[in-house]
Amino acid sequence: MTRADAVAAVRNPLAFIAARWTPDPKTVQRAALAALVMSVVIVVTGGAVRLTGSGLGCPTWPKCTEDSISNTAEMGIHGYIEFGNRMLTYVLCAAVGWAIIAARSEKPYRRSLTRLGWAQFWVVMGNAILGGIVVLVGLNPYTVAAHFLLSTALIAIATAMWQRTREGDEAPRPLVGKAVQQLVWVLVVATVLLIAVGTVVTGAGPHAGDSSEVERMPLAWESVSKLHAVLAWIVVTLTFALWFVLKAVEAPRGPLTRTRDLFLILLAQGAIGYVQYFTDLPEILVGAHMFGSCLVWIATLRVLLSLRERPSTEVELPGPAAETSLTRA
Q: pLDDT, tens digit, for every residue of 25-43?
């Protein structure tokens, strides 16, 4: 590497890498998928921190203790769990970074794809700071709810990027009529409300996140749980109705398949929800329900994104044969 190369790498490392590497489209898709998977993993492990009572395993932030950046043996298992979850944030950052680099290096360059990668990065940074605030305010339930909802936004952006890696950049063409699109948007809004009320159930419920006295939302937990269940049935009903509407209008296979997938995930999630409710919220089932919440959100977004198509524009990049013919000419 020359001195000029080193200077260029320091000034704009992404452009430097992009000028020397052209990833296969499958590589870009895998990078986006890795970022999506890690955005779900960080939610599930964050739930494990709360369910094991390790939310204040590291009692301060950004260090784990006043004198140590990492946990100590004296802090016990809770310190290991909380600090381990913090370390997974760096793995998430690495996955998002890989997605950004792969998107930036793809040929032809797709600005919209790179922007989705950077949007994930800034959401991760914002949520890391919010996570620190959660610790500093002693697991205040409102900040915990905001922390989860911001993670839900991250999953939405990651899902959109993963979908866009398999599409072109032409203007989207709708595959269904406007009435069906409106029905799906109602489904999306209902799902958002379902997830939001789920955070209230958590904030009022018994799993406070730490063995010490932690503030809870001053609401009747069982009443909020029943509202959550009603919203769940609304989402299930909307999904079932959507499937019949799509069949009636002879919609393409994509929207039908995505709607069927969402319906099956909702049934499994509902079964877990009712079992955990009637068995006094065992931690393993609550964790499974949090994982299911991520899957429901992803499946709902995939239904929305399946309502249109973006054909790719074929662009021929000069290969060895083309370069040889040009040289001969």
A: 999 999 999 999 999 999 9
60-63 own/partner pairs: CB under 8 Å, 24+ apart:
60/135, 60/136, 61/131, 61/132, 61/133, 61/135, 61/136, 62/132
Rg (CA), the chain: 23
Q: Tokens for 30?
A: 């895998």
Backbone angles phi and psi of 187, in degrees to 5? -60, -40
Name residues whose C-beta falls within 8 Å of residue 155's C-beta, 6 or more positions apart in sequence. 36, 39, 40, 43, 294, 297, 298
- What gap in Å lies between CA 137 and CA 135, rounded to an integer? 6
Residue pair 190/260 in contact by the 8 Å Cβ criterion: no
CA 193/CA 185 separation, integer angstroms: 12
CA distances from 22 to 10, 19, 26, 28, 44 (A): 20, 8, 12, 10, 34
Q: Minimal CA–CA distance to 297: which of 92, 185, 166, 155?
A: 155
> Would the pTM of this model clear 0.85, i.e. be above it?
yes
Neighbouring residues of 108: CB distance < 8 A, sequence distance ≥ 6: 315
Evaluate whether 67 touches 81 at the Cβ level (below 8 Å).
Answer: no
For 213-244, write each residue's pLDDT tens digit. Answer: 788 899 998 899 999 999 999 999 999 999 99
CB of 299 within 8 A of CB of 235? no
Question: Cα separations (Å) of 72 from 58, 75, 91, 138?
Answer: 9, 6, 21, 20
Sign of the CA dihedral running 173, 175, 180, 185? negative
